[in-house]
Here is the input.
Amino acid sequence: MSVTSLPGRRPSPDDLLVLLAVARAGRYTAAADELGLNHTTIARRIGALEDALGGRVLARGAAGWVLTPLGEHAIAAAEGVERALGTLTPDAPRLSGVVRLSATDGFSGYIASPAIAEVRREHPDVSLEIVAATRRAAQQRVGVDLEVVVGRPHVHRAEAIHLGDYALGLYASRAFLADHGTPATPAELEGAPLVYFIESMLQVDALDEARRSTRGMVDAVSSTNVYVHVDATRAGAGFGLLPAFLADRHGDLVRLFADEIDEHLPYWLVCRPEALRQPTVLVFIAALRARIAAVEDELLGHRTRPGTGDDDATGEGTA
Here is the structure.
């Protein structure tokens, strides 16, 4: 089935662009804000488009509006309208629009933020909205263009792309080790205080499995935010199971048992197939890949840490 083969009056290009905005935002109100319209106008335009096409283009999902099969066909035409309008600018094409991303705290700060900064140097009208979350990939991506999750996702009607890996290691502050002593073997960590995620709220299997090397430890500070993990470890709350790319930047943290406790976890990108036809999304994905390639050693903990020289004083300070 194609939109052009359907009976009825010809769909309005303006109505198709409204559908495109709703499909990307997931909500009438968000689409209205983006287009400078009100909620009533959005609803009227969608209704007119459905009359022209002879069926529903949107259906209510658990978290907002999702495309019906007819809506997915209409989106292809809407994207064609958007591309055609983009060619009318007399200057060299410059991208604009909002990319909506759901990703973990660490990825958002260390990868996504520098990536969008790079995009905006060439395309200053492109912006990024980030929903920071540590969770499994959603079955319906409403209100976001892209999701980045830890661990291989199991999704339907979506594209999943492996972006790269990062390492988790065990760290403690120098002050904490001076007060409590440095364990000589991993076995001495039994009963020691651990800084990590809240186990009962952890929805990501890969992050839960990473606890295997710390099973005998006792939760001291638990949080859904990885930056809290880093700060609590630096403050001396206990031993932190931390991303190397965040912990290794701090000279007051010492990595322990780097050979025995070195969990590698994958970052996966999940997106709707139609999102991969948006030029702004494609440019941002390219910037994500470039950033990950540039900091691969840091992600995997393969670099000399600040303030330590080639070897840490404990013999375990490099990752």
The domain at 3-86 is CATH 1.10.10.10 (Arc Repressor Mutant, subunit A). Confidence is low (pLDDT under 50) at residues 1-6, 309-319. Residues 69-86 form the longest helix (18 residues). DSSP finds eleven helices and eleven strands in the chain.
